[in-house]
Design a protein that fits this description.
415 residues, alpha+beta, nine-stranded mixed β-sheet, 12 helices, binds (2S)-amino(hydroxy)ethanoic acid, binds manganese (II) ion
């Protein structure tokens, strides 16, 4: 099989159309997207995706966590899966996740029309949740597929408004008590197309990144409690100011990552101050430190050092401290055989590529613990992502669909 010029034109129009229509679900200020799991915008996006998958001639299924699948039944039940996530961060872009779903849908549609019934079964995945942007659910859709959601979790995880993830699921007609039914053991390969979310491919003028390793990511939630009070009448020496303590912790995280050097990173993107008045000494602060490294040992060392520095500054400032993990996934190597297949497809498609690590977290790093998984990256403008002006070039996207389709063909037709 090979893409004709007509195929490229058709695929470009189709992906462009799918991405454009998805970005309408959860459109936020400045052209961005806020599509949080189990929100109305998310439900509308999933309904739209069901329509695409149906019109592509695929059998549409919804699992107990709300993920959607477009299935092209093969002679055998083993599943070759490709796709990405439908949820977004707050004020994110239109390509993170959504582009991968659109590319996988187009690739499988093309294969159905060009190569007919596969030997192994092909499935497009529209994963319900990856970002942990509404609930601290740590790759909810993938954990559901792996049967890793713990009993009672649906009643524990709450969003900023206090709504549990179980309530949010029930509001859409899903049944939280049945989430264990999402577990599956029939997948033999997973390939996720995604934008790089970094500057490397664009800087090197390459079309495809074959991802061979995904960074380990951890988030710790720190709560500092001091003493609230009047900004004018409490002498500085008598204060237990939770926010100045938190500020010291924020800078400690930055210094830790800087001292370690690339690829170590540490970020505090979320911080809440109480009571929050300009003339009130902060009594309570909670913040989350997101930190990453490709080497698990270094990542563990970063966690130890962060906890140690937090305890030390809290003691010195008379603050109470509590720390709890918010999410975490290990650094993993992706599947060597799938990477080689992706590279062979790049050669056949005549595109320039290179192997590279992912410094963003992805479902593939968790799914890889259960079945062979790989990712193909596309350049994104200026490496910008998790912001409204995130953008991928459609010429690159079309080549990506071609590389993906050739790889899925190797896996599902030539198996
Ligand atoms: O945070 C990440 O790397 C991913 O976007 N969830
Ligand atoms: Mn993301
Ligand atoms: Mn993503």
């Amino acid at each position: 099989v090979a893409f004709s010029t007509a195929d490229r034109v058709a695929v470009r129009a189709m992906v462009d159309d799918l991405v454009a229509s998805l970005r309408g679900h959860g459109a936020s200020a400045g052209g961005g997207v806020t599509r949080l799991v189990y929100s109305q915008a998310w439900a509308a996006a999933m309904a739209e995706i069901e329509g695409w998958l149906g019109s592509a001639g695929l059998e549409v299924r919804v699992d107990a966590a709300g993920s959607r699948f477009g299935r092209l039944a093969g002679e055998r039940p083993q599943v070759v899966m490709s796709g990405s996530h439908v949820d977004s961060v707050v004020g994110g872009g239109a390509y993170d996740g959504a582009l991968g779903v659109a590319m996988a849908a187009c690739a499988v549609r093309w294969l159905r029309e060009t190569a007919g019934r596969p030997r192994l079964t092909l499935e497009v995945l529209a994963n319900c949740e990856e970002e942990s942007s509404r609930f601290a659910c740590n790759f909810w859709g993938s954990r559901a597929m792996l049967g890793l959601i713990r009993p009672g979790e649906c009643d524990l995880l709450r969003d900023a408004d206090g709504v549990t993830i179980g309530e949010a699921m029930s509001a859409l007609g899903l049944v939280p008590d049945r989430i264990a039914e999402a577990r599956r053991d029939d997948v033999c390969a997973y390939v996720e197309p995604h934008i790089e979310q970094g500057p490397l491919l664009e800087r090197l003028g390459l079309t495809i990144g074959v991802v061979d390793r995904v960074v380990g990511v951890r988030q710790l939630r720190f709560e500092l409690r001091g003493e609230a009070g009047h900004a004018g009448t409490i002498p500085m020496a008598a204060r237990r100011d939770a926010l100045t303590g938190a500020a010291e912790l924020v800078l400690a995280g930055e210094a830790l990552a800087r001292d370690l050097g690339q690829p170590a990173v540490a970020t505090v993107g979320a911080l809440r101050v109480e009571p929050g008045g300009a003339n009130q000494v902060p009594g309570r602060v909670d913040l989350t430190v997101d930190f990453r490294h490709v080497d698990e040992r270094v990542l563990a060392g970063m966690e130890e050092e962060l906890r140690r520095r937090a305890a030390a500054l809290a003691a010195a400032r008379g603050l109470e401290l509590s720390v709890e993990p918010r999410l975490g996934q290990r650094a993993v190597d992706l599947d060597g055989r799938l990477c080689a297949l992706l590279e062979a497809s790049c050669r056949r498609a005549g595109v320039r590529w290179q192997r590279m690590p992912s410094h963003a977290g992805h479902d593939a790093q968790l799914l890889a613990t259960r079945w062979p998984s790989a990712m193909l990256f596309l350049p994104c403008a200026g490496g910008r992502s998790h912001r409204p002006d995130e953008r991928a070039d459609m010429d690159d996207v079309v080549r990506g669909v071609e590389v993906l389709a050739l790889t899925l063909h190797e896996l599902a037709y030539e198996a």
